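Help needed: design a sequence for this.
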């Protein structure tokens, strides 16, 4: 005689079996996750590696971030790769292997993203702009300018294009300064908060010894971008050249705090201090300038 298992009991046994399999599955330890990754089992290892990379054990964090980044790239999980590369940048900024890994994968991610953009939106403004930027990087300035002008002909209000044209015009030999000025004026009409364009106008004026114009635009660039260190140096230098030594002190003090290893900033600040009667501060800045020059001598051409 056959014995039938009641349906309720059968269902219970199935659930118990399933629960036993789940309960018996253990999350790998960080070291096990590293071993799994080394054997190509990245899908099983990545989550644990991400957690370990954020941990307080520095050595484990280092290896987990490196290995996790490799796994994320293998699995084509770009967001996870960027998260792990950010850990390397934050925790190990001066480590050669971390820097090499970041450079390698960031370059790969950039290429993959560009390829995806070109494949999904081949006729978009962004792709055409990207192609023009590629011409720039290849040294094909005239071709890049032509492409930027085509884009502006279709939409005159696209930001940054006039600035890029101006930059290429200034790189010519001789520089096409007047035409570049016109482009920069157009850029600032479209994007009045473009600190780089303001700086470029100031730099043209500085080369022409037009100190009032240079000061005006360098000041705007500095106001627009508090981290624009070159703007503070250029502003201080222009104020010194215009004999406005008292006004030059503040931007030059800010620059030397932001870039303490640049002897040029200390020299300009010493000049401003000296011409305003603060001899002690001037001597201090000159001593620092000499120390930096001696510590990093520039070899003159033979």
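Sure. Designed sequence:
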């Amino acid at each position: 005689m056959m014995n039938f298992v009641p349906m309720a009991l059968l269902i219970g046994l199935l659930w118990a079996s399933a629960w036993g399999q789940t309960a018996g599955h253990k999350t790998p330890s960080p070291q096990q996750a590293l071993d799994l990754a080394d054997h190509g089992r990245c899908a099983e290892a990545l989550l644990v590696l991400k957690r370990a990379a954020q941990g307080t054990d520095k050595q484990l964090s280092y290896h987990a971030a490196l290995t996790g980044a490799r796994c994320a790239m293998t699995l084509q999980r770009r967001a996870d790769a960027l998260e792990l590369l950010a850990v390397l940048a934050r925790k190990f900024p001066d480590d050669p292997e971390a820097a090499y890994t970041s450079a390698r994968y960031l370059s790969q991610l950039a290429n993959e993203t560009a390829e995806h953009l070109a494949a999904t939106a081949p006729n978009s403004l962004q792709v055409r702009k990207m192609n023009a930027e590629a011409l720039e990087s290849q040294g094909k300035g005239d071709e890049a300018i032509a492409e930027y002008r085509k884009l502006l002909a279709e939409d005159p209000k696209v930001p940054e294009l006039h600035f890029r044209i101006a930059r290429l015009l200034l790189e010519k030999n001789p520089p096409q300064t007047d035409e570049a000025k016109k482009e920069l004026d157009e850029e600032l009409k479209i994007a009045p908060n473009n600190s780089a364009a303001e700086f470029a106008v100031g730099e043209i004026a500085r080369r022409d010894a037009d100190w009032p114009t240079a000061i005006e635009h360098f000041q705007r660039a500095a106001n627009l971008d508090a981290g624009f260190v070159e703007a503070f140096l250029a502003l201080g230098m222009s104020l010194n050249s215009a004999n406005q030594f008292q006004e030059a002190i503040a931007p030059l003090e800010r620059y030397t705090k932001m870039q303490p290893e640049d002897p040029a900033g200390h020299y300009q600040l010493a000049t401003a201090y000296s011409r305003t009667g603060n001899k002690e501060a001037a001597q201090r800045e000159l001593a620092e300038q000499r120390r930096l020059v001696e510590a990093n001598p520039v070899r003159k051409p033979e």
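The domain at 121-192 is CATH 1.25.40.10 (Serine Threonine Protein Phosphatase 5, Tetratricopeptide repeat).
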